[in-house]
Structure prediction request, 128 residues.
Amino acid sequence: MNLSKSEEKLMELIWKNEKVFLKELINHHLEPKPAKTTIATLLKRMQDKGFVGYKVYGNSRQYYPLVKKAAYFSKHLKGIINDYFGSSPLQFASFFTKSSDLSVDELEELQKIIDEEMKKKKDDNLPA
Prediction:
């Protein structure tokens, strides 16, 4: 299940802070601040989707993530690869490297990441 853009923005704050009260979420927004009811509605939707939980402290709720950021974006990225690149990570990687205007330093860093992953995969396939 995906989050709307507004929910995603709110979820970013929750991931960043790990545990946060409604008032803190409102305070993190720039002026004009959203209405308390708007944030509460988004939080309710996010609870219903299984993204956030909360703990009650008196009249306040402290919200925390139920889904890790990496897991959410990994699933989201897999959906993009399936929908736009024929389920081919290779086609996605090719598109990304050609269209994202990466510098030589960034391409070299990407190459290091790829080399490290290749070494791990090869080591995993060695007989014990």
About this structure: The chain has two domains: 5-65, 88-128. The chain has six helices and three strands.
